[in-house]
Amino acid sequence: MPNSLPPLNALRAFEAAARHSNFTRAAEELGMTQAAVSYQIKVLEDRTGTPLFKRVGRQVVLTEAGAQLATVASEAFQSIRAGFSAVQGTQDGRLKLSVVPTFAMNWLSLRIGEFQMANPKIAVQLETTGDIVDFASSDVDIGIRNSPKKSPGLICHKLAEITYTPMLCPRLAESIGGVHKPEDLLKLPIIDTGDPWWRNWFEAAGVKDPDFSNQPVSQMGTQAVEGNIAIAGHGVAILTPLFHSSALRDGLLIQPFELKCTAENPVWLVYRENQKNHRKIKLFRDWILNEMEIDKACYAV
Fold first, then answer.
1. 232 pLDDT more than 70
2. Helix/strand/coil (H, E, C) string of 238-291?
3. Element (H, E) at 230
4. What's the whole-model pTM score?
5. For labeling, which of 2, 95, 119, 228 is most exposed (least CB within 10 Å)?
6. Side-chain half-sphere CA neighbours of 173 within 13 A
């Protein structure tokens, strides 16, 4: 019976080249020459009987067959790395998190120290990005992201629904004698009137066509920035209570109305299915789910 396994050195070179989309960077990672990487990939192409890369300008791009093999190779090497780490007894090691910016800045950063103190052998590495990490090509261990649905090959835990409602600092509310009805908000500067959350909330509050014509045109990009502007007293922001629970608790912000609308995409905690039993994954998962339940119970967010 012919050996159906590809040459592992060739597969290792191919996986690195596919991950980097670059033979030179793959060679640097593996401690090889570029020519050696090219040769190993040629060996693999001869074995498969089809090209795995094609050149586009000065870059190399996976062919359809190459992309199919790259997915399998990436998963296989991730499993090998994880298994070898477990055998070495160093499975804790580094925990790399990819987290959406507002959640990272306004929720996780206030609590991650507690996790680190309870698990000093785990070195947490935090990466903040609005992009959805590709677990097939990344070394990220856990992602926290806004996503409409679950993804194949990943285990997903819903951390929270994203709700939103207007918030402002008490001093700004007092400047007009208090905010008593939704229309009162229009007497104050509104932060980022182009955000569709504003019209959705006003409509839910019974204000069909809020007049934003005299409002400043602003776009701040993230809730973290908008929340700080609101805390400084420079406007009313449409924010998620979950992300600003500490500011609400400390009186830096007030939520004048109980009405909250729900965004389309919740916040998910995601990680590879084949790593679900890794100690560091389980420790962080259990910790953050417990912290989230405490927050929901305390602040009804």
1. yes
2. EECHHHHHHHHHCCCCECCCCCCEECCCCEEEEEEHHHCCCHHHHHHHHHHHHH
3. helix 223-231
4. 0.64
5. 2
6. 20
> Is residue 298 pLDDT above 70, yes or no?
no
Among the listed residues 44, 89, 106, the one whose alpha carbon sits nearest the alpha carbon of residue 252:
106
* Distance set, CA 225 to CA 102, 159, 208, 277 (Å): 8, 22, 28, 37
Whether residues 229 and 189 share a domain: the answer is: yes
**CA distance linking residue 53 with residue 14, whole number of Å:** 10
Backbone angles phi, psi at 87, to 5 degrees: -65, -40
User: In terms of domains, do 155 and 269 share one?
Assistant: yes
**CB-based contacts of 56, cutoff 8 Å, min separation 6:** none
Helix axes 34-48, 23-30, angle to 10 degrees: 110
Sorted by sequence, the CB contacts under 8 Å of residue 80 that are 6+ apart come out as: none
**CA 293 from centroid of its chain's CA atoms:** 20
65 lies in the same domain as 209 = no
Coil/strand/helix, residue 255: coil
The string of pLDDT tens digits covering residues 173-229 is: 999 999 999 999 999 999 998 889 999 999 999 998 888 888 777 777 778 889 999
In this predicted structure, the answer to whether residue 301 has a pLDDT above a threshold of 60 is no
Helix, strand, or coil (residue 146): strand
- Both 71 and 220 in a single domain? no
User: Could you report the per-residue pLDDT of 246-292, keeping only the tens digit for each?
Assistant: 889 899 999 999 999 999 888 999 999 888 888 899 999 999 999 98
Residue 1 has pLDDT above 60, yes or no: no
